[in-house]
């Protein structure tokens, strides 16, 4: 694994080496080798790089995470940091390496220049690209945090400013290109931090890159060329780059990783004339001059082309199950042995194939265990494979002729299913499973009912083909409860109740009960005489309603014949005598005579009605 060793201080060149994402100008052609060879910060299993890498002058390195303002660390992940700042992202480095390192900076500083570095051994009159992967560590849903903002200068001249680096919860590649002056071999890079100190200004940095940039260096052909071993006509590949303006050098690799320059191959056309079977990878280097071509800091690398030379002769070993036909060209083979055939590949190459064919016996067998669907019409059935023997993995499972994953085979309805299993040699066995229809689950809540307004029904019972596990009534208006097997309804308005029941197996059944109500007839009785003499008989004046027709008496007012208020009651229930008027006015019994009353009555269906009349008081 890579380890960071003797990392140069110029790593901080690209700390926030970025331009505004909408204005950045990354190289549109091909790139050269990365001059910052350790710009990915290396790799290692420890979560925090223990030696101080000394890569950030002006900052303090820390292994105590998360870093405070003015501190930085090198880590492969913030995922397991126990005390991560609440506003920070939990991230890994921006690569496919699970142990790759990145730089984490808590960069809260006053505005001003915080880095300046001179880079030498460059080439004049050459384009370069600087880039880096940067992430704003503040989560996108956090407000009120300062965003990193950096200006970039070359030799003291402002090139661009990043603007506020956004909170996107993701890495962003920032970079720009520039061209050195003729004869220029060095330059000074300066970074100026524009963001003020305070909450925020925190970032992650990875994959610093400083490369030569050139035109698109494609090879004018398909990316892979197939040749036959029997061919004798060389294949040509062409570099679509102007060799009058650029010098090139062809390179070859046998693994696509390690490259060797081909002596004397500097023209824009290269001829491959090696017909030994194998893979050959080609690319070319290019620069503005032969001198620059020798400097890895000044040259670019083309795309890669692969030439695949297909062999004339192939040897093949294969094994099949007994009684399984094997197609070999135009022949169908059923016996073991060695066979030789002439073929033409799909690439048009002649080939001689020697096949060593073996045949094995079919010992594959199995049984099935069925589970019927729980409910009528549903797909909760399953089939399990048991007592499997004689198999040679990997296995292929077919259900009704379709390849499926498993077993078990779930989500099945009632019916008959054919199961076939094939092993690696195409030995197979079949079995049939039948999933049966379960007994139907149903409920019944009886016939529709008709009620008078306010009348309470008889008990309504939920009956079923088996005892329900759970019951629900919808809507629950004017019912004693919403989940009872035995319920009662109060007549308030025409309504349809849907009763849903579930049995122990999870099957659902429903039934509907319609309740019809004569809501136009509201049976209310108000006496016209009472005697508040304390004899226990007719001592109170009260409103009486049929059953539960009245929800509440919102108010009752008693007046004498001149309109004077003698009594007022609010928000009480009907039918309870003691809640009515006891014949008193300010603790004194009123005189015998006729009095007027006004009742404002709220019915159970929400309607508000008024009842008026007279009441005679006698003693």
Explain what the structure shows.
This protein is mainly β and 619 residues long. The strands form 14 sheets. The protein has a six-stranded mixed beta sheet, with no helix packed on it. Strands 11, 13, 14, 16, 17 and 18 form a six-stranded mixed beta sheet that branches. The chain has a five-stranded mixed beta sheet with strand order 40-47-46-42-43, with no helix packed on it. 29% of the residues are buried. Mean pLDDT is 88; it is low at 1-23.
What gross morphology would you assign?
flat
Distance between the termini: 109 Å
Tally of helical runs? 1
Total count of strands: 47
Please give the largest β-sheet.
6 strands, mixed
Mean pLDDT: 88
Strand content: 35-45%
Radius of gyration: 45 Å
- Low-confidence stretches are 1-23
The quaternary state of the protein chains shown equals single chain
**In order across it, which strands form the biggest sheet?**
1-2-3-10-5-8
Share of residues in helices: under 10%
Structural class: mainly beta
Task: Give a brief description.
The protein is mainly beta. 1% of the residues lie in helices and 43% in strands. A hairpin with a 5-residue loop joins strand 37 (495-502) and strand 38 (508-518).
What's the SSE blueprint?
Elements: E1 60-61, E2 71-75, E3 102-106, E4 112-119, E5 127-136, E6 150-154, E7 157-161, E8 172-179, E9 187-193, E10 202-213, E11 224-228, E12 235-238, E13 247-253, E14 260-261, E15 269-272, E16 278-287, H1 290-293, E17 300-301, E18 305-310, E19 313-321, E20 326-328, E21 331-333, E22 337-344, E23 350-360, E24 365-371, E25 381-389, E26 396-399, E27 402-404, E28 409-412, E29 415-422, E30 428-435, E31 443-444, E32 449-452, E33 460-461, E34 463-464, E35 470-474, E36 486-487, E37 495-502, E38 508-518, E39 524-525, E40 529-530, E41 544-545, E42 550-559, E43 565-572, E44 584-585, E45 588-589, E46 593-603, E47 608-617
Parallel strand pairs: 1-2, 11-18, 19-23, 32-38, 40-47
Antiparallel strand pairs: 2-3, 3-10, 4-9, 5-8, 5-10, 6-7, 6-9, 12-15, 13-14, 13-16, 16-17, 16-18, 20-21, 22-23, 24-25, 25-28, 26-27, 26-29, 29-30, 31-34, 33-36, 35-37, 37-38, 39-41, 42-43, 42-46, 44-45, 46-47
